[in-house]
């Protein structure tokens, strides 16, 4: 029994090692989660069973190698958009996934709901991971490639079940890499390859259907709740790559701007809204009020793209489809975004 749980202790005592209270509580939760898993499954790992053809499978990642001993039947996703999308696209609905109600109505994307049907995952508040709840679910695989704080929680999670971390780092893997790695762990590599081929074909078809996109410039970025205007200034940003695959080119006016603390983003001062001008200007807004304020600004109204109608206010859901691409969100983004771009560029 851990010292802090002894019957002689009136209350838990923080060890005198410089360990912060937050880390101590995290460690205590991890111990409790491990105990819960042992109680539920009779052991501290995945349920027993035959390995089956192709198993065990090793999935190497930045946090370590996840060895999946047998085909998973109980999957938990602690990543945000891309882990859950990949699993559902492959026909596996995770038992648990983060609640994204802050960004998406109902906490789940429309493209995921459309694919999953009535087999939707249960949601948990995306603040601190609910280790005991995860352990109680008895997962035999945990998906964590799309969790920014995975390094902090990886040891605890991998003590519950094999946990897949990103191949290159958070927000660095392409959607193709993610679905192939998750497909390998799920024993569905062939399905993953078919999905990659299908989605890439849809991108090519959209580009070929709109040859007028080739070489036309764009700017795209979010306007946050306080009205601060930011723009994507890196061609390697996911949204820029999405539009680039259609033949569009990120405006050189923004690619040399200094970046904020968020890689690939630059802030636009109210006096330099002209930097947003391009053949098509795309903005998304955190709130209706932030949109109303910016569109009322005289300097915004003077931007040539705005004046000729080549301004596209993109809804948050579609913006997320572009910013966090998956085998499910990319087709949704093409469907919702391409007609708006075509109409704007025709003006």
Automatic annotation (TrEMBL):
Keywords: Signal, Transport. InterPro entries: ABC_transptr_periplasmic_BD (IPR002491), Bact_iron-sidero_bind (IPR051313), TAT_signal (IPR006311). GO terms for cellular component: outer membrane-bounded periplasmic space. The keyword Transport applies. Residues 75-345 form the Fe/B12 periplasmic-binding domain. GO terms for biological process: iron coordination entity transport. This is Iron complex transport system substrate-binding protein.
């Amino acid at each position: 029994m851990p010292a802090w749980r002894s019957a002689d202790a009136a209350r838990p005592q923080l060890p005198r090692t410089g360990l912060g209270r937050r880390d101590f509580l995290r460690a205590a939760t991890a111990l409790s989660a491990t105990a819960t898993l042992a109680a539920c499954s009779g052991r501290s790992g995945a349920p027993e069973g035959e390995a089956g053809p192709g198993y065990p499978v090793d999935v190497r990642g930045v946090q370590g190698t996840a060895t999946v001993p047998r085909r998973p039947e109980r999957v938990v996703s602690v990543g945000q958009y891309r882990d859950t999308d990949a699993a559902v696209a492959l026909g596996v609905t995770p038992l648990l996934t983060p609640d994204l109600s802050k960004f998406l109505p109902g906490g789940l994307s429309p493209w995921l709901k459309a694919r999953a049907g009535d087999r939707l995952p249960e949601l948990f508040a995306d603040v601190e991971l609910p280790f005991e709840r995860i352990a109680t679910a008895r997962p035999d695989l945990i998906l964590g490639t799309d969790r920014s704080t995975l390094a902090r929680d990886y040891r605890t999670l991998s003590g519950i079940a094999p946990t897949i971390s990103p191949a290159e780092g958070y927000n660095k893997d392409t959607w193709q890499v993610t679905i192939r790695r998750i497909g390998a762990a799920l024993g569905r590599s062939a399905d993953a390859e078919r999905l990659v081929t299908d989605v890439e074909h849809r991108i090519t078809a959209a580009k070929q259907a709109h040859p007028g996109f080739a070489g036309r410039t764009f700017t795209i970025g979010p306007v946050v709740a306080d009205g601060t205007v930011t723009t994507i200034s890196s061609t390697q940003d996911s949204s820029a790559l999405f539009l680039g695959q259609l033949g569009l080119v990120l405006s050189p006016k923004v690619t040399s701007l200094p970046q904020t603390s968020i890689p690939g983003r630059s802030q636009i001062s109210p006096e330099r809204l002209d930097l947003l001008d391009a053949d098509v200007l795309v903005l998304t807004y955190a709130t209706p009020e932030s949109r109303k304020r910016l569109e009322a600004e005289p300097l915004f109204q003077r931007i040539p793209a705005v004046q000729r109608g080549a301004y596209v206010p993109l809804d948050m859901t579609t913006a997320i489809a572009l910013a966090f691409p998956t085998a499910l969100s990319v087709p949704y983004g093409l469907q919702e975004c391409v007609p708006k771009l075509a109409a704007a560029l025709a003006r």
